[in-house]
Structures are given as structure tokens and as C-alpha cells.
What we know:
By secondary structure, this protein is an all-alpha fold. It has one domain (about 1-100). Helix content is about 65%, strand content about 0%. The chain contains four helices and no strands. The longest helix is centred in the N-terminal third of the chain and has 24 residues, at about 1-25.
Amino acid sequence: MDALNACFSPTRSRALRELAEAAAKWGCDVPDDPGITELADRLAHIPQSSADEPAGPARATDQLAQAAVEHLRSAARLGGLLPVVACHHLLLALECARGLPQNPS
């Protein structure tokens, strides 16, 4: 299991670094070396559109942010037990975060 964890460590580190950068762009206070749960908590608090707002860019942003949070929480629950699956969830969260607009509005 240690060999498998070591194999996925660079992918995990890169994904966490890029997710931290995405969270920081949204004004989240991100610590220097955030954990998965910390990133999920920060991304969960990015501005949300109003519930009565029709479908559009703001609603799509909400959905991407929520999907990123869900994948981060899944990866956090798995911990080191299933590194392949945890990395999969981290990469899905990163894909969602990359779809977020660069400038929050």
C-alpha cells in the first residue's frame, strides 16, 4: 500500500496545489499547506447565486463549485485507504474548479 501511495503522491500534491490556487482566486483564505477537508470547507463558502436566479452563468458556477466540494469530501473520506480512487476524486474536483470563471462576480 505504501508503494501505491508513493506512486500517487505527486498527482495528489499537484491537484491540491492547483485547487488551493483556484480557491484563493475566489477570495478564500487558504493556509500554506491545506488539506483536502480544508479546501472543501473553503470552496463551500464561495459566493452562491440567489435561489430564485434563473439558470445561467451564476447557477453553473454554483454547480461547479458544489461538484468540486463533493469530490473533495469524497477524497477526504477515503484518506489513504484507496489512493487511486482518492486521486480520481481530487482530479474531478480540479476539473470542476478549472471550469469556474477566473473573476468572481
